[in-house]
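queue> holo job accepted (glutamic acid)
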Amino acid sequence: MAAAYRGRFAPSPSGPLHFGSLVAALGSCLDARAHGGAWLLRIEDVDTPRNVPGAEAAILRTLEACGFEWDGPVLRQSGRLEAYAEALERLKADGFAYPCACSRKEIADSATRPAIDGGLAYPGTCRAGLPPGRSPRAWRLRVDDRPVAFDDRLQGQVVQQLARDVGDFVLRRADGLFAYQLAVAVDDHFQGISDIVRGADLLDSTPRQIRLLGCLGYPVPRYAHLPVAANAAGEKLSKQTRAPAVDAARAADELVGALRFLGQPAPAELGRAAVRDVWSWARENWSFAAIPRRRAISLPA
Ligand code: GLU
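queue> job finished
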């Protein structure tokens, strides 16, 4: 028998729930329920300077107004710092993690290759040990040039060579905060997640998470990266592009919009029905095969 399905939705409280996050919440929840699986909620508040006061409460209120029901208690990354510290200690002991003394400026001055996320690939200055007289600022994961490949249920085969495309990446930042990549890998294992369904903006991060899971000796989940909503100019709708917050007072209509975005032909009049009727329609008619296999879809202006 296949392992039990456990899915999750993991918003960051850096703003209210916007359309793209609603799509990720809905897609991950409906896929979990279609498999008779659990669906967990995790608040990714590890990057504390980006947390916006009140955003977590607003996200939970909007999810509730939209009729989402998650299993078990909400997991907050701010309560998991010991687990991240323990994982980092293990990575150090196993020779995967090393201290880095480089400042942002030093990296900018010495890096020669762009990274896949638009930044710069770390040139490896501190790989063989800290230069004399320098103290550690951050901790990095040592990567190599073996390709990391996975079969995404929607996006097909993805291959990345971490040494070339990313470089040794940060696990603990100079300000002492644990990096998202470490926290997410540790938590997905802790919560027993079998299936990750999330926006395709995270596709390029996935090989880093797979490598980390491997270094920690944890199994790799299945992945499905949903198309992200973009504006007419092709830019991802996000807080930075001023995506509007999901309007909880129009929850049924918002859910219908998210269903249609995911290729599910929900009738427009369902947007005027009760939220529970939208969920009944969605659970009866959900078709994973109908989700567009694209990284981004532009919404009309
Ligand atoms: N917290 C991330 C975000 O809001 C999502 C991470 C994930 O789903 O793995 O973009």
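queue> The chain has a mean pLDDT of 95.
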